[in-house]
From TrEMBL:
<dbReference type="Pfam" id="PF04931">
    <property type="entry name" value="DNA_pol_phi"/>
</dbReference>
<feature type="coiled-coil region">
    <location>
        <begin position="637"/>
        <end position="667"/>
    </location>
</feature>
<dbReference type="GO" id="GO:0003723">
    <property type="term" value="F:RNA binding"/>
</dbReference>
<feature type="region of interest" description="Disordered">
    <location>
        <begin position="1228"/>
        <end position="1297"/>
    </location>
</feature>
<feature type="compositionally biased region" description="Basic residues">
    <location>
        <begin position="1194"/>
        <end position="1211"/>
    </location>
</feature>
<feature type="compositionally biased region" description="Basic residues">
    <location>
        <begin position="1288"/>
        <end position="1297"/>
    </location>
</feature>
<feature type="compositionally biased region" description="Basic and acidic residues">
    <location>
        <begin position="1182"/>
        <end position="1193"/>
    </location>
</feature>
<dbReference type="InterPro" id="IPR007015">
    <property type="entry name" value="DNA_pol_V/MYBBP1A"/>
</dbReference>
<protein>
    <submittedName>
        <fullName>Myb-binding protein 1A-like protein</fullName>
    </submittedName>
</protein>
<dbReference type="GO" id="GO:0003714">
    <property type="term" value="F:transcription corepressor activity"/>
</dbReference>
<dbReference type="InterPro" id="IPR016024">
    <property type="entry name" value="ARM-type_fold"/>
</dbReference>
<dbReference type="GO" id="GO:0005730">
    <property type="term" value="C:nucleolus"/>
</dbReference>
<feature type="compositionally biased region" description="Basic residues">
    <location>
        <begin position="1249"/>
        <end position="1260"/>
    </location>
</feature>
<dbReference type="GO" id="GO:0043565">
    <property type="term" value="F:sequence-specific DNA binding"/>
</dbReference>
<feature type="compositionally biased region" description="Acidic residues">
    <location>
        <begin position="743"/>
        <end position="786"/>
    </location>
</feature>
<feature type="region of interest" description="Disordered">
    <location>
        <begin position="720"/>
        <end position="786"/>
    </location>
</feature>
<keyword id="KW-0539">Nucleus</keyword>
Length: 1297
């Protein structure tokens, strides 16, 4: 019965108000179907998935059982839940009600509507529940609408609309939800129902359409749904005009649009009513009137804010709806101009940016639109919106990937034409106020053309770089030829063979533009190097098939096509003239390059190899760079040709002769020269050159000699940083040097040009950068204050001289002052002072420039070294089995050691991280290693000794880890691989022989080296070595582990610190757990080892003192873990080992260590002594008598029920006279405090105190004769203390009275 009562109470608690008591429901409905009631609890939960599952389960349950009383109860609970106080619960109940009504169509909707109105009556509901009742009505109508049965019952539709009209007046709570619900209803009902039932009810709302955005949208929805009913005559009767958009209604519509813009200020969306108005204007053929009058002359006249943002969003949403002519008109109007100014001003931080939303609008339009003309109109429109020549859209605009191939072709043609013949009049150009004031007209025009061309070049390159753009090979080659031609050539005379000469430049190219073209061309060359084939870029390419990159459909490299194009230009000097004169040496190098490439192609036809392809790429790339830096690359080209010729000759000799002669065994000089060439090329700021150099070095790796490898390592040597001048050249051109770190990768995104379009001049951006540099240099300036003191002193002397020359320095003798100087003297004094201060400023600037130059040199050198690490990485990966790899160990360790103690800037960290990764992960952990080191045993043993000696002297444990890893690598090389015979024997003897195999390793010497290291680790208080290092040694080399075990066992007791003793236990435990060690020491050696370990453990445990220290406790735990393994193993193997001393010590530990109930120490101890037959004693838990009862009472109290023992009982309280009651209370208080009472206290205070005291005693007095002190003594003391405090306060008040 208790459960049924609880359920009935929980059901009644959900109801907001109950007018009449309902009849008693049969016990079976609620008592037997707990699952049924849980559905309603789940509907109120915040998790949407739980609510949806509850809806489905509830409908399934009702259909299965099909009981009328349960269905009626369901409707009651769902209607009640529509006004739930929890916001997440209302949609759940509404959805459930709609789905139940849809499933049980025999239930009339009118009955449910009446029940909703009755339950959530706004006239009778309490004030605090008024808001919930409004939501109850709204969600009730939503449930009826979601049932999809409203069109079948017109009267219910009318009732719902009237209810929503009533709710729409409560906008402070419901906002526009009632109007939106009415629109949803209009979208569902047929036209005849609207005409017969709803039109009259909505007459007032439709007539006042121009008052609010919601009512206007209601009218627009009705016009879309019921055009036959709302004909122009009907509209004229309602609104006074037969059309919505006309000259008379435009002012009203503008106000409604402004209201709509303010209503969605926080949501940042386009209101549906605005888009509906735009569609209606297109339908009524009044778009131009609406756009020019309501938007341009209405919304844009407001201050920048919501009205402008609404106009921009409307522009983006209108793109799919407009024709090509309308698109051109809109995209060249005032809205676009204002949008451009917004984009520029929004570049500042903490400004709202609408550009991402516009990108989405344009991208969606281009993705859906299949009309190439419309796509072109949009792209040209946005590209023509410029700020002082620079378009406001980014040069790398991803939306271009949705263009059709024809639109891409036309767009590229437009970009090229605009580059050649820029027409500022046809662009939608604007300037900010600051830009207008800061530049003259002529200078501004020239700068605008440069900015426009700069953007166009970057735009063309980004189209080629984006693999998702649908483009043909002809288009790619056309863009590449265009950029190359204007970067390095100019038109002398038009020629049909060279299309680029047929169009002339209206404004000649200046040096800045050519610089942009040159850098962009080599970035474009890199993009083409990674360009996949046209058919591979689609979905038809096989998944496992290796894709060809950087080649055309016929297999020719893109760069090869460009080289042939450059040859055509060079061969026709009458038509194309080089921007820089080509010297005879350059032309000779170019021709020899073409000849070498032709020879490589011929040999590749006989048998294509990766080496020939790599050399072709290198030749072609260096040839193209001859146009950019001919002086630097002429010698490189000559050396490269001689190297390739020698390499080809050497390979030809090897093919002819199978036996190597003495000449062939000599080191080939061409490899060393080739490495020097690659190092020189790596100093060039080009990622393309970097990748090609890596490819070439990969192909020549088998031929690399020790001298060539030494040349690479010399570059990386930290001790030779001061001598590193040949590879990196730093010029004084500030702009060039500023760009070089970014141009190093040569994939210029040109996103820094966004700052050019940022409302201020580009100079302002440079000033900001200068300010940042000044801030960065503040610390360094502070360090040089001592030096500047001397400079200031010299400056003071010079200043005194200038003043004395003009007699402007006041002296005590003549008392002269500057007031006595005439005008001419003052002018001379001003000139002298100006010259002096100017000279001082120049000196300070020169110092700063020198410091900046040194810093840039360091950056470039470090960047160069990071590139050189590419070659080291390739060599380690490709030639891991070469003896030359052993020569990389010490140089890489030196780099890591120096890097750990050097600067912490990001570039230094990247270099260090890269070097450490190559050393540890690719060198030391490689499965392939040198197996031919038999003739270098002594050298490798000396190297091992040197590494271990150095590792013990280090102060940083992280660096020591790399030295120890190197030592293990050397040991691995010395040991080599076990013979194949040992691997083939599956027996135990074969396995033991494999373990005992040590190859060329001098076991005694190596054991001595590692034993000394182990003794150093255990005998020094601060050692860089760690236990994990020796654990790795034991795991990888069990043969050496056996040799070191005795030393490790001794340190169980003799470790210099307690921590070392614990680590010795860890090492011995790991060694004894190893199966390989057990196999090597099988028999008497293993028993002898167990005896030694047992003795050391007993001696170590005897030293244990106070275990309160964390270090001591950890040592004891590790010692006990070793004890556990030893005792268990001895008992299992039945070894003849005397464990009595260890057992005795373990038993005595209980008197030394204070054991707790549980813990790692205690659990390990009892696990050890369990092997000796000692069982952990069980502690009986004493249960207090009253505590379980109290816990049960608390548990019951949590459920919301008052236990019987806590229920207040009626007591016969004697009725006292007021005076007698006051006297009795005062006497009781005085007796408790031990003082006499004063009769002068007011009676009201005494009565009030008595009431409070009675309340306290009633709350604390339990039933059944149990006093409060018996239940909780602490409460008694607290109560007594509070009572005494109140008595003291009473006495103070009485004294004051």
């Amino acid at each position: 019965m208790d459960s049924s009562c609880c359920e009935e109470m929980s059901v009644e608690m959900v109801e907001l108000s109950v007018k009449t008591p309902e009849p008693v429901r049969p016990a079976g409905v609620l008592q037997q179907n707990r699952v049924f009631l849980d559905f309603f609890w789940d509907l109120a939960k915040p998790d949407q998935e739980v609510r949806l599952k509850a809806v489905g389960d509830l409908i399934q349950y009702l259909k299965t059982n099909n009981k009328a009383d349960e269905l009626d109860y369901t409707f009651k609970r769902l209607v009640d839940g529509l006004a739930h106080t929890r916001e997440a619960a209302r949609p759940g109940f509404s959805l459930a009600l709609g789905q139940v009504l849809s499933a049980f169509e025999d239930v009339p909707l009118q009955k449910l509507l009446d029940r909703i109105k009755e339950k959530h009556n706004l006239q009778t509901v309490k004030k605090k529940l008024f808001r919930n009742a409004m939501f109850g009505n709204l969600f009730g109508v939503l449930a009826l609408q979601q049932s999809s049965r409203l069109p079948k019952e017109p009267q219910v539709v009318l009732g719902c609309v009237k209810l929503l009209q009533n709710l729409s007046q409560r906008k402070q709570h419901l906002k526009d939800l009632p109007t939106k619900t009415m629109m949803d209803i209009l979208n569902e009902i047929p036209e005849d129902v609207f005409e017969e039932v709803l039109l009259s009810a909505l007459q007032t709302d439709l007539a006042s359409a121009f008052s609010t955005p919601e009512q206007l949208q209601l009218l627009l929805v009705a016009l879309q749904r019921f055009p036959q009913t709302l004909k122009p005559k009907k509209l004229k009767k309602l609104l006074g005009s037969s059309t919505i958009i006309n000259a008379d209604n435009i002012p009203k519509l503008t106000e409604v649009l402004k209201m709509s813009a303010r209503s969605v200020k926080k949501e940042c969306v386009l209101p549906a009513v605005v888009l509906d108005l735009l569609k209606l204007s297109l339908k009524e053929d009044s778009f131009q009137l609406f756009w020019n009058t309501a938007i341009v002359n209405g919304m844009l006249k407001e201050q920048p804010g919501p009205a402008h943002y609404l106009s921009f969003r409307l522009l983006g949403s209108a793109l799919p709806l407009l024709s090509a002519a309308q698109l051109k008109e809109v995209l060249s109007g005032e809205v676009m101009m204002q949008y451009g100014e917004h984009v520029v001003s929004a570049q500042k931080p903490d400004r709202f940016k609408l550009a991402p939303e516009m990108d989405v609008y344009v991208s969606d339009f281009l993705e859906v639109c299949q009309d190439a003309d419309k796509q072109l109109a949009v792209m040209v429109g946005f590209s023509s919106l410029t700020n002082q020549g620079y378009p406001v859209v980014p040069s790398v605009w991803r939306v271009v990937q949705h263009l059709q191939p024809a639109a891409v072709q036309h767009y590229v043609d437009w970009l090229k034409n605009t580059f050649l013949q820029p027409q500022p009049d046809k662009l939608l150009d604007f300037s900010t106020r600051k830009q207008k004031d800061s530049q003259e007209a002529k200078e501004q025009k020239e700068n605008s053309i440069f900015r426009l061309r700069k953007w166009i070049v970057s735009r063309l390159c980004s189209i080629i770089d984006n693999h998702l753009v649908k483009k043909s090979e002809d288009l790619i080659m056309d863009v590449a030829r265009f950029v190359f031609f204007h970067a390095f050539f100019s038109t002398k005379k038009a020629s049909a063979d060279i299309p680029e000469t047929t169009r002339k430049l209206s404004v000649p190219l200046d040096d800045r533009t050519r610089g942009v073209l040159v850098n962009s061309f080599f970035g474009l060359l890199l993009s083409m190097h990674h360009l996949p084939l046209a058919e591979d870029s689609g979905e038809g390419a096989a998944v496992n098939q290796k894709r060809a990159l950087g080649v055309t459909a016929d297999g020719t490299m893109w760069i090869d096509h460009l080289v042939q194009y450059a040859q055509v230009l060079l061969n026709q000097p009458k038509h194309a003239q080089s921007s820089k004169p080509v010297s005879p040496e350059q032309r000779q190098a170019w021709d020899s390059m073409l000849e070498s490439v032709a020879n490589l192609k011929k040999k590749a036809k006989k048998g294509p190899t990766a080496e020939s392809g790599a050399f072709q790429q290198l030749f072609l790339l260096v040839g193209m760079h001859l146009f950019k830096a001919p002086e630097e690359l002429l010698d490189i080209m000559k050396d490269l040709q001689s190297c390739v010729d020698k390499a080809q000759e050497k390979k030809a000799k090897k093919k002819k002769k199978k036996q190597a002669t003495e000449q062939e065994q000599e080191e080939p000089e061409w490899v060393e020269v080739m490495v020097d060439i690659l190092l020189s090329l790596l100093s060039q700021p080009s990622r393309h050159i970097r990748q090609v150099c890596r490819t070439v070095f990969t192909s020549i790796c088998p031929h690399v000699t020790a001298a060539a490898l030494t040349a690479i390592l010399d570059v990386l040597d930290p001790e030779k940083d001061d001598e590193e001048d040949g590879a990196v050249v730093v010029t004084d051109d500030n702009k060039t040097q500023k760009k070089k770190p970014n141009e190093e990768e040569e994939d210029e995104e040109m996103e820094d040009d966004e700052s050019d379009a940022s409302g201020d001049d580009s100079d302002d951006g440079e000033d900001d950068e200068a300010m940042e540099e000044d801030d960065d240099d503040d610390d360094e300036d502070d360090e040089e204050e001592i030096e500047e003191v001397a400079v200031d002193q010299n400056f003071r002397v010079e200043l005194m001289k200038v003043l004395q020359q003009q007699n402007a320095l006041a002296t005590e003798e003549d008392g002269s002052s500057d007031e006595d100087l005439d005008d001419a003297s003052m002018m001379e004094l001003d000139k002298g002072l100006a010259a002096l201060f100017s000279e001082q400023k120049k000196k300070a600037q020169a110092k700063k420039d020198e410091k900046t130059k040194i810093q840039k040199e360091k950056t470039l050198v470090r960047d160069f070294k990071i590139k050189v690490l590419d070659l080291v990485e390739v060599f380690v990966a490709r030639q891991a089995g070469s003896p030359l790899v052993l020569g990389l160990v010490e140089p890489l360790l030196t780099i890591i050691d120096r890097g750990m103690s050097s600067g912490s800037d990001q570039q230094e960290q990247d270099f260090l991280r890269r070097a450490a990764d190559i050393f540890r992960n690719q060198l030391c952990r490689s499965k392939v290693y040198c197996r031919t080191a038999g003739d270098r045993q002594g050298e490798l043993h000396d190297l091992l000794d040197k590494l271990m000696t150095k590792s013990q002297k280090l102060s940083d444990s992280s660096v020591c880890l790399y030295y120890f890893s190197a030592s293990l690598y050397v040991v691995k090389v010395l040991r080599g691989a076990p013979p194949a015979d040992a691997k083939e024997e599956p027996t135990a003897d074969g396995a033991a022989a494999d373990l005992r195999f040590m190859g060329n390793l001098d076991v005694d010497r190596v054991s001595t080296i590692f034993t000394e290291a182990l003794n150093s680790f255990m005998g020094r208080r601060k050692s860089p070595l760690t236990a994990q290092m020796f654990t790795d040694l034991f795991t990888r080399f069990p043969g050496l582990c056996v040799k070191l075990l005795d030393a490790a066992v001794l340190h169980i007791k003799s470790g210099v610190r307690i921590h070392q003793q614990g680590q010795a236990c860890v090492l011995v435990l790991r060694a004894m757990q190893s199966r390989e060690v057990q196999q090597l020491l099988s028999g008497a050696p293993w028993t002898e080892l167990c005896v030694k370990v047992s003795g050391q453990l007993a001696a170590s445990l005897q030293q244990v003192g106070d275990t309160e220290s964390k270090v001591v406790k950890e040592k004891v735990v590790k010692t006990l873990e070793l004890c556990q393994f030893l005792v268990k193993h001895v008992h299992q193997q039945k070894l003849s080992v005397d464990l009595e001393p260890l057992q005795t010590v373990l038993k005595s530990l209980t008197s030394v260590i204070e054991f707790k109930k549980t813990g790692k120490l205690e659990d390990t101890y009892w696990a050890v002594v369990k092997h000796f037959g000692v069982v952990k004693p069980k502690v009986e838990k004493k249960k207090p008598e009253n505590k379980p009862d109290e816990q049960q009472l608390l548990k019951k109290k949590k459920k919301g029920f008052l236990p019987e023992t806590k229920k207040r009982k009626k007591r016969d309280i004697p009725i006292l006279e007021p005076a007698a009651a006051a006297a009795a209370a005062a006497a009781a208080a005085a007796a408790a405090a031990g003082h006499t009472t004063f009769r002068g206290k007011p009676r009201a205070d005494k009565g009030q105190a008595t009431k409070k005291h009675d309340k306290k005693t009633k709350q604390k007095r339990p039933a059944d004769g149990v006093t409060a002190s018996q239940l909780n003594p602490a409460k008694k003391s607290k109560t007594t203390q509070s009572e005494s405090n109140t008595d003291k306060k009473k006495k103070k008040k009485q004294k004051k009275a």
